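Re: [help] complex structure
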Amino acid sequence: MFDVIAEGDGPLFMDPDADKAREYFHDKDRAMVSKIMTVSEAVGKFIHDGDYLAIGGFGANRIPTAVCHEILRQRKKNLIFAGHTSTHDFQILAAGEAFNRLDIAYIIGLEARGLSPASRRYMESGKVEVCEWTNYAMACRLKAAAMGVSFIPARNILGTDTFKHSAAKVVKCPFTGEKYVLYPALWPDVSAIHVHEADVYGNARLRGISIADLELARASKRLIITTERLIRNEQIRQEPTSTGIPFYLVDAVCEVPFGSYPGNMPYEYFSDEDHLRLWLKVERDPEEFKSFMDKYIYGTTDFSHYLEQCGGCDRINQLRAVENLIDAYEEV
Amino acid sequence: MTEHNTMEMMICAAARNLEDGKAVAVGTGAPCAASMLSQKTHSPNLVIIFEAGGVAPLLPTMPISVGDSRTFHKAVMASGMCDVMETIQRGMVDYCFLGGAQIDKYGNLNSTVIGDWHNPKVRFPGSGGANDFGSLAWQIMVITPQDARRFVENVDFITTPGYLDGPGSREEAGLPANSGPHKVITNMAVMGYDPETKRMRVESVHKGHTFEEVQENTGFTLLKAPEVIETPEPTEEELEVLREEVDPNRYIIGR
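Output below.
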């Protein structure tokens, strides 16, 4: 048994018990059947009020934007959210006040683009209960869950206030006597990941960096895949090396072309910096932001409708050129 | 000497600290420009790594996000966060670049809150990958404006560890031995850390500035290196590479 030397005072929102997770996965159906459905159906069926939700990708890169929008349209509430490498996804969910508990690694900001005023107002409102982590800490928690164990050791976070307000613990290594931080496994109730290609069963390929999505897919109790395009199962079987996420992890497959917009999708289209700037600008005025949200999210029927509002195929073609470094890429 | 602005000065000063054959974990902005400049001048074998998984890219332009397509353009590997962080944890990454709202005399960084954590006056993004880099890389570099509101006696929140409470405290906390803050590069000076006390000290002052001015813009008492020199100005070659190859659109150097 380890001796716990120190522990953070942050709330642990999810039970790290590995046997309980095994019981869940024991009962998860392994049949290779079509899981094709609309985003609206997937969100309605698999995301429930009060669930722990995680979003794949990296903020405004390879994110399942359509799922984030639909969570708002369906007025999901009281979620616990993994604020892990989150930027635009966080901005959307905070705008809808969809979560009231939050594991924080990175929130509010859109990296070099600046901070989101509306997200900041929500975080400073006192409505959200928080626990502090780091990007690697959250990735470790997902990795532990993916491994099927209840914790994982690491050497970061020690000695800081980030640790003090986390739910991690410090122990001595039983082999060397060195201090290690232990991170509790995190099994999200539901996650959504956007990929390049998937078959109807959920066998999925993502290209470029995987961020923490391979771990996230394996840690999640329920998983919604949105995909740029559907491919045939034969294609998956011809090139199994490319499969990052196997079908038995997946609950829903939704074909959403340009589904990471206004985020970047590697090898497909670059981020729409004009549109992301527009978000940051209108957020300064709560009234203007409300009209903006009504126009772009609550007033749109689905993601295709939103894309049309944002310039449709013409805009996507411009972003394709930017992604592929064609012409003057400085014009984003 | 060619005219140059403050940002160009900071980027060049940072770039000179990156040795050939080493690895650096970077974010976007000035650190990325410094790493690219270093690669294109004296450190062609500098390995650039991004936290989201980009390993040794040939950056075609400045990334906007540490996870965007540019961060793995013509890279040797498009990996993931655990792999990158674990490469740092294994001791294979020499430098990282960090920023923050506040820094103290031991190089501790705050990017979480201003005021009380339970009831913050201002909420910032939090650690992101900063704590991971600052805990696990060998040497931490910071590029930031010299400002008494940033350089404070005590940070409101230690997001990322510097030397914590001073000598030995990183090791005592359990962080990897012999790692920690290395340089702080500002618009006025380059600072390092006293090897005995682990306190921040001025090592060189940029042309047109004085030690006294640096001290006035710092909220704690700065130490002085045994010899405080004038920071060497950017060379013609550095400026040419920086302006024509690294940041031709002046995204960073135009700020």
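The helical segments of chain B are 6-15, 30-40, 81-89, 130-136, 169-173, 211-216, 236-246.
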